[in-house]
Amino acid sequence: MFRRKKSEGVAVAAQSGSTPGHAGSTGSTDGQVSGDRAGGKGRPTPTRREAEAAARARAKGPQSRKEAAKLLRERRAAENVKMRQGLKTGDERYLPARDQGKVRRFVRDFVDSRLCMAELLLPILLVIMVLTYSGNPTLQGYGNGLWSAILLLVVVDTGYLIWKIKREVRTRFPDESTKGVAFYAVLRTLQLRFMRMPKPNVKLGQKPPARY
Q1: Between 126 and 4, where is the model more confident?
Q2: Residues contacting residue 70 through CB under 8 Å, at least 6 positions apart
Q3: Which is more confident, 212 or 207?
């Protein structure tokens, strides 16, 4: 009777096409395959919904006030650098309204192309002050004479500059108004060359471009 049960067990195993040891290895293989499918790095692959949620979270930016304030400061600093650079180079996008336009650009180039007596006014005034407060009557006389001479030269040179600029603007830009051109030119002549903003684009003695 025991011999019959053993033979039946062998027949059943043969019909199922496996042995008791083979069944255990199959379960191990299935576990390895499922583990490989779960992810090669030992963690499950995120679903599409989870990936989209993570992307939305990253798009929201900083989560705290401190991070938001830091990000805002960095953006403002970068924008200020762009504005300063644009102001120096004369980029129209960063210029104030009074400096915008091809007429104002021409006026700047025209003023920068020549040596104006008005830009020498400040350095000469310092010399005049030294002579005036020296306590020496002779030097004080020289200071007064120099002041009269430089003032006369500035008036004559500025008057000629205004006349010349208005004529050039009417010739180059017949459809543009010359309103405010003279005042804009005088303000630029009063500034030392290295302090002018936007920075000069032409050198002394160099003619302004033919077209703007």
Answers
A1: 126
A2: 62
A3: 207
Question: Which residues does 94 contact at the CB level (< 8 Å), separation at least 6?
Answer: 82, 83, 85, 86, 87
Integer CA distances (angstroms), 147 to 10, 110, 153, 154, in order: 127, 27, 10, 11
| Residue whose entry in the numeric block shows the structure tokens 């379960």 | 27
Q: Which two tokens stand for residue 60?
A: 């929201």
User: What is the maximal distance between C-alpha atoms in the chain?
Assistant: 148
Side-chain-facing half-sphere of 190: CA atoms under 13 Å: 8
pLDDT at residue 26, rounded to an integer: 43
Mean pLDDT, residues 156-185: 92
Whole-angstrom Cα Rg for the chain: 43
CB 38 within 8 A of CB 45: yes
- Contact between 189 and 107 under an 8 Å Cβ cutoff? The reply is no
| Higher pLDDT pick, 93 / 120 | 120
Q: What is the mean pLDDT of the chain?
A: 78
Asked if residue 114 has pLDDT above 90, the reply is: yes
The tokens for 51 are 């990936």
